[in-house]
Amino acid sequence: MSETTEAPDVLAWTCPLPHRDRSRVVMGHGGGGALSAELVREVFAPAYGGPALSAMGDSAAVELGGARLAFSTDSFVVRPLFFPGGSIGDLAVNGTVNDLAMSGARPAYLSCGFILEEGVETEVVRRVAEALGAAARAAGVEVATGDTKVVEAGHGDGVFINTSGIGLIPRGVDLRPQRVVPGDVVIVSGPIGVHGVAIMSVREGLEFGVEIESDCAALAGLVEAMLAVTEDLHVLRDPTRGGLAAALNEIASASGAGVVVQERSVPVPAPVANACAVLGLDPMYVANEGKLVAFVPREHADAVLAAMRAHPLGREAAVIGEAVDSHPGMVVARTGLGGTRVVDLPLGEQLPRIC
After folding, report:
1. Angle subtended by helix axes 122-139 and 88-101, to nearest 10
2. Which of 168, 225, 232, 284 has its CA 20 to 30 A from that of 9?
3. What SS3 class is residue 233?
4. How crowded is residue 237: how many other Cβ atoms within 10 Å of its Cβ?
5. Gap between the Cα atoms of 180 and 129, Å rounded
6. How confident is the model at residue 2, as a pLDDT?
7. What is the sign, positive or negative, of the torsion defined by CA atoms of 167, 169, 103, 261?
8. Matching NCBIfam families, A to Z (predicted)?
9. d(CA 247, CA 24)
């Protein structure tokens, strides 16, 4: 090491396998994996109760005045605020819109809460707000209400955002993991791992020979195209924190069905595969922000896949596996060499703060 080279800041590193300390919150509790599920199961669910919460979907399906509504909330703490392919403003809209869409809802209105750190430049806040507004218009939703708070310098990270959303669920649509049955076909809407690697590359100054842009996008239009084929989709999930592996495990656990994934069928772009090889990551666990995974009855799978591929956000959709009656609640992958490996729920998070 030369005299001018700065030593790595080891205190800023985050262990991908965090210590399981039940007495204190660790970074892994926010990663969408086993620690997140444990926190929800042991702390929040007992405190809140209620049948709407018990379904534990991406959004809650509730009835109000004779209408079925999807209701969701999400918070965004990504760093950096701007990255190739998007910003925290885009994420704040698309993340909540997608949670509503995974219930089959037509997203309609959002609330938006900004938590600003004292000292952040007003122009930065303006750029984030403009990106958020543009994303909302592109997604066909209206920001109907909001809130702003400021915390002391050193007690935030520039800009945090919370968005909540509501949308109308069409009559006859019933998307939930409990509907999954053996024989269902598993379809992913496109290449995985793009968003997480894009964030890591810009945050850590890594170069992989080609710029990797986030796949951040609103998926409501793609879901509408799928439902136009048949309302009898069983479940949809957007594999954000914890990646495809976490989404599949959540569905398997809630449905009681086993899931078999053909590893070679999972679309992983070459730059993402190369980056994961360098970083020692499994693309199945890397976050996405513009992809969905669907469990579709076998008799509708071909038609749904065709409709997805006809949509701009589903051109590279692929069948990656099926639900089975063996190994209930477990996800396994068939490797290219003919072996089988368990794809478990991640403990924490491979790439911290990607949304």
Report:
1. 30
2. 284
3. coil
4. 23
5. 39
6. 41
7. negative
8. hypE
9. 26
| Domain residue ranges of the chain, discontinuous segments joined by + | 58-172, 177-342
> Residues 336-349: what's their mean pLDDT?
82
Domain topology for 58-172: 60s Ribosomal Protein L30; Chain: A; (3.30.1330)
Collect contacts of 77-83 with beta carbons under 8 A, ≥24 apart: 77/157, 77/160, 77/353, 77/355, 78/199, 78/353, 78/354, 78/355, 79/157, 79/158, 79/203, 79/353, 80/202, 80/203, 81/124, 81/128, 81/158, 81/159, 82/127, 83/198, 83/199, 83/202, 83/203, 83/214
Q: Stretch 95-106: mean pLDDT, rounded? A: 97
Which tokens is 27 given?
């970074």
Bridge partners of 145, per DSSP, are 111
Question: Residue 102 forms beta bridges with which residues?
Answer: none
Which homologous superfamily is 177-342 in? PurM-like C-terminal domain (3.90.650.10)
- Alpha-carbon distance of 239 to 289, in angstroms, equals 7
Tell me which of 23 and 85 has the higher pLDDT. 85
Average pLDDT over residues 289-318: 98
Residue 218 exposed, middle or buried by CB count within 10 Å (0-12, 13-18, 19+): buried
**Which residue, chain included where needed, has tokens 């090491």?**
1
The highest-confidence range among 50-54, 62-66, 195-199, 301-305, by mean pLDDT, is 301-305
Q: Which residues contact 155 (CB under 8 A, 6 or more apart)?
A: 117
* pTM to 2 decimal places: 0.86
Q: What percent of the chain has pLDDT over 90?
A: 66
- Rounded distance, CA 124 to CA 159, Å? 9
Distance CA 27, CA 211 (A): 28
Q: Out of 171-185, 267-281, 319-333, which region has the weakest mean confidence (pLDDT)? A: 267-281
Q: How far apart are CA 51 and CA 133, in angstroms?
A: 33
Domains 58-172 and 177-342 share a fold: no
